[in-house]
Amino acid sequence: MSKEKILIAALKGIAGERVPFWFMRQAGRYLPEYKRVRASTKGFLDLCFTPEKAAEVTLQPLRRFHMDGAILFSDILVIPHGLGANVAFAEGEGPIVEVCDTREKIMALDLSTVRTKLAPVAETVRLVKESLPEEATLIGFAGGPWTVACYMLQGRSGKEFAAARAFAIREPRLMQRLIDTLTEATIDYLRMQIDAGAEAIQIFDSWAGLLTPDQFALWVTAPTQKIVEALNKSHPHIPIIGFAKGAALQLKPYAQQTGVNCIGVDQQTSMEFALHCRTNPLQTVQGNLDPLLMAFDRDEALRQTEAILKSLGNMPAVFNVGHGFIPETPIENVEAVSEFVRAWRR
Ligand code: 1CP
Q1: Which residues contact residue 92 at a Cβ distance below 8 angstroms, ignoring those fewer than 6 apart?
Q2: Cis status of the peptide bond prior to 288, with omega within 30 of 0
Q3: What distance lies between CA 242 and its chain's CA centroid?
Q4: How far apart are CA 131 and CA 39, in angstroms?
Q5: What ligand 1 atom has the least distance to the C-alpha of 141?
Q6: Which domain covers residue 170, as residue numbers?
Q7: Kindly report the CA angle at 143 between 100 and 193, in degrees rounded to 5?
Q8: Does 94 contact ligand 1 (Cβ within 6 A)?
Q9: Burial class (CB in 10 A: 0-12, 13-18, 19+), 74
């Protein structure tokens, strides 16, 4: 019988002596080897859709830091592309997404093209699986429907996504339709990743914290619950991490109602509080070192890492950052924190 990988075991609720770890945005611009591959592409989406290159950058951080998880290299905004909306990444500007805020545009989104347009991502998953260290787990991912809708309604990055929040208030039926379409597309896309070899899934709802409690239940918790139910039905052994950034006091209902295996925790939330939000002894928590500490204060990052690990007690958990790495993150800091977590024992 093959032994379960340490990250999978933790996500399924088994608290081992060592706490497994990986980092959100562990691939990317803080790594010179990433920048080299990126410079050889025609643009960011070209990198996402060139399986050999995407597989290479997925594996790069593991060669340096030996994380327990590799996160598929792609982006949450490939879903609108799969549905037929235009998506581009302008150099130095971030994403530009075709605005879909009319009935015509929302009805025109085409679920039948998701698998074909996103087929290169499945190929990346297969390639990564061929070269993944045998103890490491390949994590697939998608954005939460609300967070993807934020970009589809606003057209670009933002801090407030007022256009998306206003649309949800003024056009609740169209909003529901958009969220439903994104939910279906996400289920299909994640099933494709799992069939290609993804061993765990994370749902990134990075802008969940912008919503009121009622809206959060409608646009974050309900669609996530649908995704979890659908995946549990088709792929019952694949653990799911739900990362609803900024969930704050909605974390408990989110954990309860979505039924995610693992609750992603941002750095604004204490691990003690997240542990208190678990609904059954097998539910796991993941987090939550401040990515800015990781970037700017190595000693404090190490102290905080130890405090987080200690706060877990004997609970099943995964160590991570509370949100993605920023490009200024020094490699030495990631090395130091990785070594610390790898050596630490309960
Ligand atoms: O030119 C470049 O190299 C672009 C930088 C970059 C990278 C490295 C973008 C553009 N996306 C990514 C990869 C990425 N994005 C991953 C890969 C794996 C890893 O974690 O190492 C993942 C999981 C994402 C997810 C993603 N994309 C999120 C959710 C997580 C988060 O950070 O909140 C979001 C919101 C995006 C949108 C996005 N992609 C890229 C940009 C610049 C943005 C906009 C971010 C914003 O609005 O602030």
Answers
A1: none
A2: yes
A3: 8
A4: 23
A5: 23
A6: 6-343
A7: 115
A8: yes
A9: buried
Residue 24 near ligand 1, beta carbon < 6 Å: yes
Residue type for position 12: K
Q: Is residue 1 part of a domain?
A: no
**Residue of 72, 76, 81, 186 to test ligand 1 pocket, by largest number of atoms within 8 Å of CB:** 76
Show the 3-state SS of 64-128: HHCCCEEECCCCCCHHHHHCCCCEEEECCCEEEECCCCCHHHHHHCCHHHHHHHCHHHHHHHHHH
Residue 26 Cβ contacting ligand 1 at under 6 Å = yes
Q: In what order do the strands lie in the sheet with 200-205?
A: 69-71, 137-143, 200-205, 240-244, 262-264, 284-289, 317-321
Distance between CA atoms of 238 and 336, rounded to whole angstroms?
31
Q: How far apart are the CA of 95 and the centre of ligand 1, in A?
A: 9
Mean pLDDT by 10 residues, the chain (346 residues): 87 97 97 98 97 98 98 98 96 93 98 98 98 98 98 97 98 98 98 98 98 98 98 98 98 98 98 96 97 98 98 97 97 98 98
Q: Verify whether ligand 1 is closer than 6 Å to residue 140 (CB atom).
A: no
pLDDT at 332: 98
**CB of 205 closer than 6 A to ligand 1?**
no
Q: Which atom of ligand 1 is nearest to the CA of 72?
A: 18
Number of domains in the chain: 1
145: nearest Cα among 207, 196, 195: 207
Instruction: Return the residue matching tokens 């939550």.
Output: 288
158 vs 74: CA distance, rounded Å: 20
Known catalytic residues?
Answer: 25, 29, 38, 75, 151
Report if residue 125 sits inside a domain. Answer: yes
SS3 of 191, please? helix
How far apart are alpha carbons 283 and 12 in whole angstroms? 7
Output the domain CATH number for residue 130. Answer: 3.20.20.210
What are 184's two structure tokens?
Answer: 């279906």
Q: In this structure, how many other beta carbons lie within 10 angstroms of the beta carbon of residue 45?
A: 18
